[in-house]
Amino acid sequence: MNIDIILQNMLNPPVLFFFLGMLAIFLKSDLTIPQPLPKLFSLYLLIAIGLHGGHELSQSGLSTYIFKALLIAVGMSMLVPVYSFFILRMKIDVYNAIAIAATFGSISAVTFITGITYLDTIGVAHGGFMVASMALMESPAIVIGLVFAALFAKSSDAEDENTSIKEILREAFLNPSVFLLIGALAIGILTGDKGWHSMEPLFGTLFKGMLAFFLLDMGLVAARKIHELKKVGMFLIGFALIMPMVNASVAVAVAYFFGIEKGDAFLLALLSASASYIAVPAAMRLSVPEANPGIYLPLSLAVTFPFNISLGIPLYYYMITTFWG
Question: pTM score, two decimals?
């Protein structure tokens, strides 16, 4: 385990702004962010992630190998929220089960960047197209979450027992967050390198700055409601620690079966093990406001993220070397 890499990524400024937001609440500071702005930050991040992924995909093309890797990525982002939801429903309400399942079905960009740094440090090659797989893994979990919301949340409220599949899919795919993310990905593919460079000053250079604002607001929100995490006890904390290892193990097995190369397989495992604290929280705040960000955000950012950064990365790479040699 490389301590320098761990410290370098634990001291990432946007992540520290999340904890600064929490600290402001704990110390009873008057720090606030005007309410229209958090929604703008959410929209910005969805566009930036989609555009970047589309640009990377337009540059790498779509060979059979890349198609297999992207297919595994999308498959994992659809599979993880499904079994996560039913595990979570054994202990918690439907809205929070949906939000947590979607959070763990999606990915963490900072964890992904940490994984690339780790591979570069130890000299293991990896494909640039994996950035596109990261972008593709953002939205399926959101769609699955919204489908579950239409199926289970509405039926539990007994408001609309006759919801049609057509209506469920319409609600899922035309949800503002998913629509914007997929639309930005398509624009990134269509406009390619020229389009990305024309937008890069706003959606590339400023990304970390806007992410810092977003995470500062998330820190404020999470700290205000973190006491609710105590109500659900060790079950969710155990979930946030065990599920990344389970998800990584599944991804490693699938990647090995399909002949994915070592570095790309590691990134697939890490993406599958990570949990979102950007796109999904942004989407859940817009689409499932009944879910409590004081539960799903601390699980992702305060439990799973540090675990993956400190212990998960060397653990998942150990899995990879066990299979690939």
Answer: 0.76
